[in-house]
Design brief:
Layout lengths: L1 H26 L9 H15 L3 H17 L2 H16 L5 H5 L1 H21 L1
Helix pairs in contact: 2-3, 3-6, 4-6
């Protein structure tokens, strides 16, 4: 009977520890500026296309997007990328994307983050 009681107490303690760990794990949250994996991967692929397909450049390009993510909220990054994409298409409809101050500022903020990333990582 005593062995059975010890077994129950041990099982109960394990259950409590498991519940405590599970609730702690559930409480862990992602950083506010966390970028989706696909966005980080796209950046690294494009960076390596420009800088070379080496292990060293993989590390530098990964560092670069991590630095940008640290400095620029994902929403701002996504908006700046959209503006830059539209600008590349050209045409008369693009003029707003070249001169509208809030959009210009978003692109400038991203460029500043990219420069900082280049200084830190390359």
């Amino acid at each position: 009977m005593i062995k059975f009681h010890k077994l129950l107490v041990g099982a109960g303690m394990c259950a409590l520890v498991s519940i405590g760990l599970a609730s702690h794990v559930g409480a862990v949250s992602l950083p506010e500026n966390d970028y989706p994996t696909s966005t980080r991967a796209d950046y690294v692929f494009a960076c390596m296309q420009v800088n070379g397909q080496t292990r060293e450049n993989l590390m530098k390009c990964s560092c670069s997007i991590d630095t940008i993510a640290e400095l620029l909220p994902y929403k701002d990054y996504e908006e700046a990328e959209t503006v830059m994409s539209v600008r590349q298409k050209g045409g008369e409809n693009v003029s707003m994307f070249l001169s509208y101050k809030p959009l210009v500022e978003k692109v400038n903020n991203m460029k500043r983050a990219q420069v900082e990333a280049e200084l830190r990582c390359f």
